[in-house]
Automatic annotation (TrEMBL):
Domain of life: Bacteria
Span of domain Aminoglycoside phosphotransferase: 33-228
One family name in Pfam for this protein: APH
Organism: Glutamicibacter ardleyensis
Protein name: Aminoglycoside phosphotransferase domain-containing protein
Gene3D superfamilies, per database record: 3.90.1200.10
Coiled coil: none
Length: 286
């Protein structure tokens, strides 16, 4: 969190977000989780979680994003972080107190294919019609309709010279991916965004990237976290190929997000390093 750049403290933002909650919640012990690139989360024991935006780009969409979460159907069999109070906005930043979602992330590389398939189906079966106006356009976080030009003009020039042609090939492959049946997509279905308990997915966090897409979007996220070899057990070879095309641009998309959000140069530089390493380890060796 860029506390050095803020004229308002994290404590002030959190206090504002929880101001209308019961006293026991406001006084609960707090733990800061600093995993996400767009938000950090302050846990108030097992009572609540406060999402705090890291930049003004993300803050401008928090109200719409939380409205989407509050509108998700209750019958999907997974807990979601519904609002406990209104979105608080202070000096261009935003925060919201939400219900606590119990559980822990599945360790990387673990997760039974049957449960991954249940998780994927639970999300893709959500009826998007009532939620349409709250959904993002695909790849909005790294440019939306302009994502391709941002990749070509802003991202690729930052990649090491010897990897630029590989990066461009990955971007071109995604841009030429033929449209398929559109379903509700979480957009980042894996890692710290899914809570598990005793081998079962129990809750889903961070719905900020939700959009209409095909199943390969969420399939790619599951494969990256739980193990790519498991995808063949829950999807067709065709879908796995499409998921691979998406996966090959993930690091480049993340770099695009940081550029679009005008994040500090240190963060952008770190993302450049991660993108170069990923290309070297996964694309250059083919």
């Amino acid at each position: 969190m860029h506390t050095a750049e803020r004229s308002v403290s994290l404590e002030t933002i959190v206090q504002t977000a929880v101001s209308g909650l019961p006293l026991r919640i406001r006084r609960a012990q707090r733990t800061t989780i600093n995993e996400g690139s767009a938000h950090l989360v302050v846990l108030l024991e097992d009572y609540a979680a406060v999402r705090v935006t890291r930049d003004r780009f993300t803050a401008s969409r928090l109200r719409q994003r939380q409205q989407l979460v509050d509108s998700l159907p209750s019958g999907i069999g997974l807990t979601v972080p519904r609002s406990l109070g209104p979105v608080a906005e202070i000096e261009g930043y935003a925060a919201v107190a939400t219900e606590f979602v119990a559980g822990a992330p599945c360790p990387a590389g673990e997760g039974e294919p049957e449960e991954l398939q249940r998780l994927l189906e639970a999300v893709s079966s959500i009826d998007p019609v009532p939620l349409q106006r709250m959904l993002n356009e695909p790849l909005y976080f790294c440019g939306g309709a302009n994502w391709y030009s941002i990749q070509i003009e802003e991202v690729i020039p930052r990649i090491y010279q010897q990897f630029r042609s590989l990066a461009r090939e990955a971007i071109e492959a995604l841009s030429h991916l033929e449209p398929e049946e559109q379903v509700f997509s979480h957009g980042d279905l894996g890692g710290y965004n899914v809570m598990w308990h005793r081998g079962r997915a129990t809750g889903i966090l961070d719905w900020d990237l939700s959009s209409m897409s095909d199943r390969s979007t969420d399939l790619a996220s599951l494969g990256v976290w739980h193990g790519w070899e498991k995808l063949s057990k829950i999807a067709s070879p065709h879908q796995v190929i499409r998921a691979g095309i998406r996966r090959n641009t993930f690091r480049l998309q993340q770099l695009g997000f940081l550029i679009v959000a005008q994040r500090p140069e240190a963060e952008i530089s770190a993302a450049i390093g991660r993108a170069n390493r990923w290309i070297a380890e996964n694309l250059a060796c083919k």
